[in-house]
Amino acid sequence: MTGITHLVFPDGSAPSTVGAVTAATTPPELDRTDPEGAIAAAAKRCSNWGRWGADDVLGTLNFLDETKRVEGARLVRRGVSFSLAQSFDANGPQRGWRRRTNPVHTMLDTGLDAERGQGFPHGLGGADDVVFMPLQASTQWDGLGHIFDHGTAYNGRRAGDVVTSEGDGVTGIETVAALITGRGVLLDVGRAIGTDGELPDGFAITPAHLEATVAAQGGSARVGRGDLLLVRTGRLARARREGWGDYAGGDSPGLSFTTADWLHGTEVAGVATDTWGFEVRPNEFDVAFQPLHQVAIPHTGLFIGEMWDLDALAADCAADGVWDFLLTAAPLPVTGAVGAPVNPIAVK
């Protein structure tokens, strides 16, 4: 694709550590009144622009290589598997926020049609169906074309060059359809830090909380390069108990903006949570909307999963004390999509 620019921050400067592998740093204390400054500073510290070349479209999935997939496969011990997807149906959490609706499933042919004859020879009959849905209505991945920073997409490209009315022609979700399989690790922060396995709305999970959870869970919970990190808050469990309410679009526990450096430094390939928006809501600045997204996707190139169902897996991990597993989480390869549904499978 022509006309794409690279390696320029919104303020006109270039990242100072392109291609460098750096350890996580402790960010300065947040100034609630200055989201612009905090986002710009974190964008520079956590940038992966140019790290894998000017034409890279994979972002942090570059960390998930063949060795990591073999490592993940070796974690299968008992053969027990868990679907980490919520249901895709009309009873889902969506209430029209950002014009998102729950899936609408309609039959094109039914058993009644078959009984009455469909014109096929020798008594053959069949059923067919169709579904209409926003691609981020339920369990899903955010692709790299989902979020921009001041009109700039991942790897320094102009947002308008990447996503047009025809979709994402550069980093469409189909580019990673075969890649998201490897070592998964669950950090059950709700169980380790929360009350009765759940965190309250507005609880910001900091790097200290993540590290405390790793320490509490033990060696199988270590998090490192190429891992697919799952963070359970317990928010979905509460929605199941109390009703959807504002589960999709409202207040929620989630990752603190201060985890941007931790996520960048640990070099995880992707991260997913059981919440609608991955990061804490309300956000940690006086006036802000999803500032961690604004750093993690267009600058770090991080793949973010949302609305994953981690409850059954978490219960099993707590029972056997093993927090890592083979995880396969291929998105539906909708060409040009900036996000896509997924049925993640964890196998232990």
TrEMBL record:
Pfam families: Cyclase
BP-aspect Gene Ontology terms: L-tryptophan catabolic process to kynurenine
Domain of life: Bacteria
GO molecular function: arylformamidase activity
InterPro entries recorded: KFase/CYL, KFase_sf
Protein name according to UniProt: Putative cyclase
Naturally occurring in which organism (per UniProt): Geodermatophilus siccatus
